[in-house]
Write a structure and sequence with these properties.
Blueprint lengths: L1 H18 L11 E6 H6 L4 E2 L2 E2 H12 L5 E6 L9 E6 L9 E5 L4 H7 L10
Parallel strand pairs: 1-4
Antiparallel strand pairs: 1-5, 2-3, 5-6
Helix pairs in contact: 3-4
Length: about 120
Amino acid sequence: MFHFLNRIESLDAEKNKMSEVIETADGGWEGAILVCSQCAGKIPGERFLGKSRIKNELKTLIRSEKIAGVRVLEVSCLNVCEKNRIAIANTLFSEPGKKIAMVPAKTSAKRILNFFEIERDNPSF
């Protein structure tokens, strides 16, 4: 009986040890475009069925242009809100003043990619 209980304790210790290990995974992308969902939600016509228009347009354009290594993510807030503008950040762009763009409502996805200089053959991505 004690041998059985020792084995259970050993398995529990092993399980706890494994759960403490932080692992990494390759997501297949190098950079992300972050779209503030709160900014988009405040502007009429910028959200549809719980998703922002600009996120969907950016994803569609990135796929159609075959731009690899970029993921478009909607985030809750980037803490730089301006009236009638959507905060959009590019995680790989480090030039001062261009890390977060305050995009006017109805701005096209193409214009945003051009602003961040994201294109198919860009070595940054």
